[in-house]
Design brief:
Largest sheet: 8 strands, antiparallel, barrel
Helix content: under 10%
Number of strands: 9
Structural class: mainly beta
Number of domains: 2
Strand order of the largest sheet: 1-2-3-4-6-7-8-9
Radius of gyration: 29 Å
Shape: globular
Distance between the termini: 33 Å
Length: 281
């Protein structure tokens, strides 16, 4: 939690008082008065609340570093999953009411983030998560009905691409935006569970992609109820990400290792989907 700033006034502190001094009547008394005055000065400096200077520790209070479990400006703390005696690491989650950003056959350059919601299309099917976050094992599979046909994504190898991904399956972490974990294509969000790795996709039973990168994440509401992502949010008033914690979604993609800087994101292939109905099982 952030430290409260120290007031520059003495309000709330006890008033500083000192003993009365007798008039100086002799040189000895003068010397005694001088010694007493010096003692008083030392006392004034050492007494809390009597100095206008801010203690160094308060003036240099350190914000936490940006990372998967800490962010500056937070107003509460959470126990990590592993701190709970009953935590089993198992996440079984289904995503429905799925939308695709763009299509499979968009000509480059394209934008497959679609924050303004104008390039979305609803698709049939579900996305299914069944993973063990502790063991970094499990499955992610999306079976979707697109206008082009039956489209299936399979995560075949769970793989960590950066340390904040905690072995390839991670739970209760901050990612994206300015979190210090992941890219900035999405706003910073608390991720309830997320996975990374390599996998494949088929279309109508025929191989479409092989050995492509896959990422899924169950997040706070990155899109509003009209499917618009307000990101970047220029009127942001805090360090919190541009998300609505009253909503939840499942976002996932499959992308090519090959890059293409004409596209957004900068990949030759970036098939991007999100589910607005998330069911925990």
């Amino acid at each position: 939690m952030q430290s409260q700033g120290q007031s520059s006034s003495n309000e709330g502190h006890e008033k500083c008082t000192f003993p009365n001094r007798s008039p100086v009547r002799s040189h000895m008394h003068l010397i005694g008065h001088f010694v007493a005055a010096m003692s008083t000065a030392v006392l004034l400096i050492s007494m809390p609340g009597c100095s206008g200077s801010v203690p160094e520790e308060s003036a240099t209070a350190q914000e936490p570093e940006r990372g998967p479990r800490t962010q500056p400006g937070t107003a509460m703390g959470l126990y990590e999953p592993g701190q709970h005696d009953l935590y089993d690491g198992r996440f079984v989650i289904s995503g429905a009411r799925i939308y695709q950003v763009g299509t499979l056959n968009d000509e480059s350059p394209w934008d497959h983030m679609g924050n303004d919601g104008t390039t979305l299309r609803p698709v049939g099917g579900t996305a299914e998560i069944d993973v063990d976050e502790i063991a970094n094992t499990g499955t992610f599979r999306a079976e979707l009905e697109l206008p082009e046909g039956k489209y299936v994504i399979d995560l075949e190898e769970i793989k960590e691409f950066s340390p904040c991904q905690d072995g390839g399956i991670a739970a209760f972490l901050f990612e994206h935006g300015d979190s210090g974990c992941g890219d900035a294509n999405w706003p910073k969000s608390l991720l309830y569970v997320a996975g990374w790795g390599m996998g494949s996709a088929t279309l109508n039973g025929e191989p479409l992609y092989d050995d492509y990168e896959i990422h899924f994440m169950v997040t706070q509401g990155m899109r509003d109820r009209d499917l618009v992502a307000h990101y970047p949010l220029n009127s942001k008033t805090s360090e919190a990400g541009a998300v609505n914690p009253a909503l939840q979604q499942l976002d996932f993609y499959i992308r090519s290792p090959e890059k293409n800087d004409a596209n957004h994101p900068n990949r030759e292939v970036f098939d991007h989907f999100f589910a607005m109905e998330v069911t925990w099982k």
